[in-house]
Amino acid sequence: MARHDPTELAKVAFAAYCGATGGKNHRGEEIPAWENLGPAVRTAWEVSAEAVARKVLRLAAAPGQKESR
User: Fold this and answer.
1) Which residues fall within 8 angstroms of residue 62, CB to CB, at 6 or more apart?
2) CB atoms within 10 A of CB 49
3) Which of 20, 27, 55, 65 could link 61 by a cystine bridge, Cβ 3.0 to 4.6 Å?
4) Rounded distance, CA 47 to CA 21, Å?
């Protein structure tokens, strides 16, 4: 299994999202820095990054996640 850090992947994805949106959320408000996000939001980014990594690396879904085809 390839090693990857979901938090680091999440930070990369979050930075890309911020860059693509001009640093604004869907309401046009400034997106806070990673460090200022609440734990639930950081966890959501980490879970999302982990899902993408698993898909790219063709690994089984994490427990509790549905496999996508």
Assistant:
1) 47, 50, 51, 54
2) 21
3) 65
4) 21
